[in-house]
From TrEMBL, chain A:
GO CC entries: COP9 signalosome; cytoplasm
Pfam families: PCI (PF01399), RPN7 (PF10602)
Subcellular location: Cytoplasm; Nucleus
Biased composition regions of type Low complexity, renumbered to the chain: 225-236
InterPro entries: PCI_dom, Rpn7/CSN1, Rpn7_N, WH_DNA-bd_sf
Family: Belongs to the CSN1 family.
Name this protein carries in UniProt: PCI domain-containing protein
SMART domains given in the database record: PINT
From TrEMBL, chain B:
GO biological process: ubiquitin-dependent protein catabolic process
Keyword Cell wall biogenesis/degradation: no
InterPro entries (UniProt xref): COP9_N (IPR055089), CSN3 (IPR050756), PCI_dom (IPR000717)
PANTHER family xref list: 26S PROTEASOME NON-ATPASE REGULATORY SUBUNIT 3/COP9 SIGNALOSOME COMPLEX SUBUNIT 3, COP9 SIGNALOSOME COMPLEX SUBUNIT 3
One Pfam family named in its UniProt record: PCI
This protein's UniProt keywords: Cytoplasm, Nucleus, Signalosome
Gene Ontology CC annotation, any one: cytoplasm
Places the protein is found: Cytoplasm; Nucleus
Residue ranges of every copy of the COP9 signalosome complex subunit 3 N-terminal helical repeats domain listed in the record: 59-263
Main location, first listed in the record: cytoplasm
Protein name: COP9 signalosome complex subunit 3
Similarity field: Belongs to the CSN3 family.
The PCI domain, residue ranges: 319-375
Species: Jaapia argillacea MUCL 33604
């Protein structure tokens, strides 16, 4: 597994690599244990994650392929075979990779495929007939269940869009808010599986509303069909509610992360309830260590030092998540202790772990850059002047690189300072606030006066009805100003 | 103006009778009416342009000061007639310098006509400079003061620009006119004022300022053109927008937003022009800038903007260097050249730097080994003197007074009251208990704030 490769993740220009095949390095300085990683997941996500790894990390591809095929046999979606093998083939086709052919690594069990196809076919027929019968009989509850079963079925065989259709269709036949809630959670699972982040918020919102009604009614009178949301507002949080709330919070957090809204993502991740609240989502969709990583990276990239202390270090709930991934605590502690070199080294060391995550992969670069920028800003804050050499020692970069970064940050306005390029010194800007304020006020006054004058003139023009009117046809019919002002030009 | 005098059915048709009327008028308004209505329009100017029955020149009979109204009518008819009837130019000059203002204001259209005639004559004589003096006299004497817009304004600035009389630091006529901002529009004074007069005056005025490289004023003038009320943007406004863009690039190194009340079509139209490409590459991508200018040269030439565009090109490295001073304390000449896109032209960069230091655009020193040290900007230091502060405060207070007065004017104007009453009915469903006071206080929060000073 430990194969030396040319490291391509280090290119500074690869901040927006979404489509471009990126190769993730696995070696002594970037340790990664595939089996222990994948063992914390179950179900479909295992295959999804393995497929992702195959695409990113050629050295791990054969092993991932084997694991994936083993997992596929436990499920009932033969089409996954194809996805997995084609991803593997694509990886093989990358330059500088020499991998055994797919069929040398795994055996495709043709019998199983056919068996499974037949079985799926039969079940589909059965479920559709059921749905038809129920629709004819117009039994609402049964129709809902039929839709739900079909949704589950299609999801299992990997037809996400049809599955989605059935789930949403089932909404029409929901009689209790508990049903709506179930539907929303199923849809959310599907959306997260599909990495469709932008839609998550809609269903979280719907689920929230349903949750209010459901828990309100359950707490009060346990009716069979509590469709009236009268008691919703006085609902007290039951244990049940808290559990579902955690799931919804997680979905929200993930949607923020997926859409690149790191600060909101950080806040949502950090206020997640205990792991038990996620129920069957742990393993099926996400692992506790994933949450630790997402939350921490987002927090480091977007929150202030005080915010990190209050919301990460003093947060008992989140502490439990962090226990799953001890190095995350190391990063936070190094960051809080201003040992930025260690932070960056750790980030680099675990970049493989981060890139291999299906939800985090496209944000790793952005997050790393943000954390690095924050670190530089924080580091410089207490100084009036500092030698770039010292900064380069603190961050473990060359002086040129430090200068480049610092100049970038000055130009984006994050550091108030100037670089002495000859002596390699960064010097904080000293502004005379009093003079600056005076100058600003005078300027504002002048601008206002000039604006006033123009506005008053404009008002007078309007009062005198000296308004430019369109000629009968439309504008510029041969009335070019050079004609009007022939002599002038 | 007296419009109620009896309609002159039987108009005196000969110039001699007219002259006698002119020399012994009952009242000037009556005379003004008589001159306006003694004959149909087409015949009128022919009669006025003719000679006396004895063959004499009517202008010799009349006195410029006491018979201003009559002279004005005759003169304005004759300057636009065929060359033989044209009066001596010195006579026109004399008239412009001495005429009686009150009489002339009874016939504002004729003043405009006379001014046009002066411009024509000077063109035919091949010397636009000639028209400047009489036009300036008209301009300074006819309206109560220079802040009133008249149709004479555009004629004067156009003539100035043609004869290359540009505003300067000296108190030349053109400088005086252009540095008096237009504040008043009075259609009683000049009933023949059109929206084009405003646009042309400010556009050409802006061009004059551009000619003497006074960018602040040029920007102001073009902004007035662009911000003029319009139902559809006029071509002049479009041209002004183009020029404004170039002026802003030279002056500030970046684009500032157009006035809020700009016609929404204007920025959109501007986006489609090559001018927008200039903004995109300004100031750091010098290579791209040059190629845009090369490629779109024809457009710039056709718009008569090539000169300005070239100045934009010259300004680009300056603004690029200006930007560097915010980031660096010291930098080698070679590095500067590299970052402003003039690699290999170290000497040229050194020259630009020197000239920037001379004009105190930047505060920097160049050492012998080619290291440039940027010091803190000059403007940031020193602070503001007490005198400056007091002046600024006085100006602000004056502004506040003006605005407050205006607010009251508006507050008691008929139009406003009608609208306010109507609006109140709609909003509060006809609740009459709410006083006018409250309504009006909301009109000008600025004035209320300044009152406290």
């Amino acid at each position: 597994m430990d194969v030396e490769m040319v490291d391509q993740t280090e290119l500074p220009s690869s901040s927006t690599t979404k489509k471009k095949p990126r190769i993730v390095l696995v070696d002594d300085s970037h340790p990664f244990e595939l089996e222990s990683y994948i063992s914390s997941y179950s179900g479909r996500t295992v295959v999804d994650r393995l497929t992702h790894i195959m695409g990113l990390c050629p050295p791990l591809a054969p092993q991932a392929l084997q694991l994936a095929v083993q997992e596929i046999h436990k499920m009932r979606d033969p089409s996954m075979y194809q996805t997995v093998i084609s991803t593997y083939d694509q990886t093989c086709a990358l330059p500088d990779t020499q991998l055994p052919a797919a069929l040398d690594v795994v055996q495709i069990n043709q019998n199983w495929v056919e068996e499974m196809n037949a079985k799926n076919q039969a079940e589909r027929m059965k479920l559709e007939v059921e749905l038809k019968t129920y629709t004819n009989n117009m039994i609402k509850e049964s129709i809902r269940m039929a839709h739900r079963d079909l949704g589950d079925f299609y999801r299992n065989v990997g037809d996400a869009s049809t599955s989605m259709k059935h789930y949403t269709k089932s909404r029409e036949f929901c009689t209790t808010s508990q049903h709506v809630l179930d539907m929303c959670l199923s849809v959310l699972e599907l959306l997260i599986e599909q990495k469709n982040y932008s839609h998550i918020a809609t269903y979280v919102f719907k689920a929230d509303a349903a949750l209010d009604t459901a828990s309100g009614n359950n707490g009060k009178e346990k009716e069979a069909a509590p469709s009236q949301p009268t008691t919703a507002t006085t609902a007290k949080k039951s244990v049940d509610r808290e559990r579902i709330q955690t799931k919804l919070d997680f979905a929200t957090a993930l949607s923020h992360l997926g859409t690149g809204n790191y600060e909101k993502a950080a806040i949502s991740f950090l206020k997640l309830g205990p792991v038990s609240g996620l129920g069957d989502w742990v393993g099926k969709l996400v692992s506790a260590s994933d949450i630790a990583i997402y939350g921490t990276l987002c927090a480091l990239a977007s929150l202030s030092r005080g915010g990190i202390k209050a919301q990460v270090l003093d947060n008992d709930n989140f502490g439990v998540y962090i226990e799953n991934e001890p190095y995350v605590r190391e990063i936070i502690e190094a960051y809080m202790g201003n040992r930025f070199k260690t932070v960056l080294e750790l980030l680099e060391r675990y970049s493989t772990r981060h890139s291999i995550d299906i939800h985090l992969t496209s944000h790793v670069q952005d997050l790393t850059t943000l954390i690095r920028n924050r670190a530089i800003v924080l580091y410089f804050q207490p100084f009036a002047t500092i030698k770039l050499e010292r900064m380069s020692a603190a961050f473990g970069w060359t002086v040129e690189e430090v200068e480049k970064q610092v100049v970038g940050l000055i130009q984006s306005g994050e550091i108030q300072g100037r670089v002495d390029s000859q002596n390699k010194i960064l010097k904080a800007k000293q502004t005379d606030s009093r003079a600056a304020l005076f100058a600003k006020a005078l300027q504002a006054g002048q601008d206002m006066q000039s604006a006033n004058r123009k506005l008053l003139l404009r008002m007078r023009l309007q009062q005198a009805d000296l308004v430019v009117k369109a000629p009968k046809g439309y504008r510029m019919d041969g009335v070019h100003p050079s004609e009007m002002l022939l002599q002038a030009d | 103006m007296s419009t109620s005098t009896n309609p002159q059915q039987q108009a005196p048709l000969s110039l001699d009778t007219l002259i006698s009327e002119i020399t012994s008028p009952t009242s000037f308004p009556a005379l003004a009416h008589l001159l306006k209505s003694f004959a149909p329009k087409d015949v009128r100017d022919v009669i006025l342009g003719s000679t006396l029955s004895g063959g004499g020149d009517p202008l010799d009979v009349l006195d410029v000061v006491s018979n201003t109204l009559g002279v004005l009518w005759i003169l304005s008819a004759r300057v636009n007639a065929h060359p033989q009837a044209r009066p001596r130019f010195s006579y026109i000059e004399q008239f412009c310098a001495t005429f009686d203002v009150n009489q002339a204001r009874l016939a504002p259209e004729r003043v405009t006509l006379l001014a046009r005639g002066i411009v024509n004559i000077s063109h035919q004589m091949g010397d636009p400079k000639l028209s400047l003096k009489p036009l300036y006299d008209l301009l300074t004497r006819f309206p109560p003061n220079l802040s009133y817009l008249t149709p004479l304004h555009p004629l004067f600035v156009v003539a100035s620009l043609q004869s290359s009389h540009l505003p300067s630091t000296q108190q030349t006529p053109i400088t005086r006119v252009l540095s008096t901002p237009i504040k008043e529009i009075n259609t009683n004074l000049c009933p023949d004022l059109g929206y084009n007069d405003n646009l042309v005056y400010h556009y050409v005025g802006g061009c004059c300022w551009v000619g003497s490289k006074v960018w602040v004023e040029a920007q102001e003038f073009f902004e007035i053109v662009i911000g003029a009320p319009a139902q559809a943007p006029s071509a002049i406004q479009m041209e002004a927008a183009k020029k404004l863009l170039l002026v802003q690039l030279i002056k500030d190194g970046k684009l500032s937003p157009l006035p809020k009340y700009t016609h929404p079509h204007l920025p959109r139209l501007l986006k489609q022009t090559p001018y927008h490409l200039l903004v995109k590459h300004f100031p750091l991508q010098l290579g791209e800038l040059k190629s845009v200018v090369e490629k779109e040269r024809d457009v710039f030439v056709a718009d008569e903007n090539l000169g300005l565009v070239l100045q934009v090109l010259d300004a680009a490295p300056r603004w690029a260097i200006q930007k560097l001073t915010h980031t660096y304390l010291s930098l080698g000449l070679g590095e500067i050249a590299k970052s402003v896109g003039m690699e290999g032209e170290v000497e040229e960069v050194g020259r630009i730097l020197l000239s920037m230091i001379e004009k105190s655009e930047i505060n920097a020193t160049i050492s012998i080994d080619g290291t440039v040290t940027f010091n803190d900007s000059v403007a940031g230091r020193g602070g503001v003197s007490k005198g400056e502060m007091d002046r600024a405060l006085r100006e602000a207070q004056y502004q506040a007074e003006v605005l407050q007065y205006l607010e009251r004017e508006v507050g008691r104007s008929r139009e406003y009251l009608v609208k306010a009453a109507k609006g109140r009915d709609e909003v509060w469903g006809g609740a009459p208990g709410i006083g006018d006071e409250d309504l009006m206080l909301g009109v000008g929060p600025g004035a209320a704030v300044w009152e406290g000073d």
